Amino acid sequence: MSAVASPQAYAFAPSRCGGLRMNLNGAAVTLRASGALWIEASRMLVVADLHLEKGSAYAARGQMLPPYDTRDTLRRLQAEAMATMPDAIVLLGDTFHDRRSEDRLAREDAEALRALAGFTRLVWVVGNHDADGPKALPGEVRDEIAVDGLILRHEPTHGAQPGEVAGHLHPCARVVASGGSVRRRCFVTDGERMVAPAFGAYAGGLNVRHEAFAGLFARQPLCGALGAGRVHAVGWRSLAHD
Question: Is pTM beyond 0.85 here?
């Protein structure tokens, strides 16, 4: 998938890690190919919607998905932590798929989360799936966090919200080109606020042209679509409905 250039002032610039750099409400950030957001000044790594133990939740209802989503998601998060060496990792809500997910964690996965909390500051922003936060795992539990002119919260708020970084909607972009189309998880932003992609292996996604995104952006947004080791800048006119 090739990047689509944009003439807008909030266009992305490539970074050496394969991501895209931009100014978000005045803060220098990098959209990483993993789906994590890097906030440069505070050295903060932000990941949204891990939905840990979604596979086991579905299995309990008779839908037998391979039970490896939590292990894969945490492995990728550990890799991001080692690549960036952050001062803090912010889990931007819906880290667990439901309120019993923590109880279903394998011992090795719980230890991986404890190791992250021992490695750096770990902040659990609560979401609609995990409103109580963790019961036994370490870290800070917050409703939202303010840093470098940004407000990190789980669910986007309608109306003007400069500096808001949210998850919840699991944005995906369908990109149309002469050879067909491809659907990818993506960041979506107008330079003032951002909705981050879901980081979880089984989290799924919602097309950015869905009405749930209507009214969030003051001007036509851009997408940072996740590719293999690279984030692609995509203009709004190149996006299609599902």
Answer: yes
